[in-house]
Amino acid sequence: GDVKAGRQKALQCQTCHGLDGRSKLPEAPNLSGQVEPYLVKALQEYKTGARKNEMMSVVAPNLSDADIADLAAYYAAIEIEVVGKP
Amino acid sequence: GDVKAGRQKALQCQTCHGLDGRSKLPEAPNLSGQVEPYLVKALQEYKTGARKNEMMSVVAPNLSDADIADLAAYYAAIEIEVVGKP
């Protein structure tokens, strides 16, 4: 996936997931630094209907395989660090 | 959910997700600092079968609602920060 292209495509994700991958809603997961193959799988599953979600099931069918690869590459490329443990 | 109890219960999750919530496998998502209601929903969906995964569909049915609340509280309580943007 192409990180720069993914950043552009992520503009449609930012209302819920943030452009930096920090969730804006209690139902939306953080995506920053998420494992890239996991993100690809999640989007493919929403696209095919194997996984369902009110919002994602509407959005994902419009994504091409390249869109999915780019979005996964972008969000995975945001570096995160654990800064505090309970 | 109880964070301390969740830490104990997370010992069964650490081979794939890490005790600090950093994924050990390309198929397993990071859980550190993940949105708590999202984690509860994910585990409940794996438990009921609404969401399917080779590993999680085996593990989740053995979790009580309290287990799920505790695990979600624990992983959500690990603080993460974005340290680098692409």
Explain the overall architecture:
Two copies of one chain form a homodimer. By secondary structure, chain A is mainly alpha-helical. Chain A has a single domain (3-77), classed as Orthogonal Bundle (Cytochrome Bc1 Complex, Chain D, domain 2), CATH 1.10.760.10. Chain A contains five helices and one strand. The model of chain A has no long low-confidence stretch (mean pLDDT 97). Chain A binds chain B through residues 3-4, 7, 20-23, 26-30, 32-38, 41, 50-52, 74, 77-86, and chain B through 3-4, 7, 20-23, 26-30, 32-38, 41, 50-52, 74, 77-86.
Write the layout of secondary structure elements.
Two copies of one chain form a homodimer.
Chain A (H helix, E strand, L loop, with lengths): L2 H7 L4 H4 L18 H13 L7 H4 L5 H13 L1 E6 L2
Helix pairs in contact in A: 1-5, 3-5
Supply database-style keywords.
Cytochrome Bc1 Complex, Chain D, domain 2, about 90 residues, mainly alpha, homodimer
Task: Summarize this entry quickly.
In chain A, 48% of the residues lie in helices and 7% in strands.
CATH class division of chain A: Mainly Alpha
Counted beta strands of chain A: 1
What would you call the structural class of chain A? mainly alpha
Discrete helix count of chain A? 5
> Tell me, what's the shape of chain A?
globular
Overall average pLDDT of chain A? 97
Strand content of chain A: 5-15%
Contiguous runs where pLDDT drops below 50 for at least 5 residues of chain A: none
Give the largest chain-chain interface (CB within 8 Å). Answer: A-B, 34 and 34 residues
At the fold tier of CATH, the topology name of chain A is Cytochrome Bc1 Complex, Chain D, domain 2
Q: Specify the biggest β-sheet of chain A.
A: none
What is the rounded distance between the termini of chain A?
35 Å
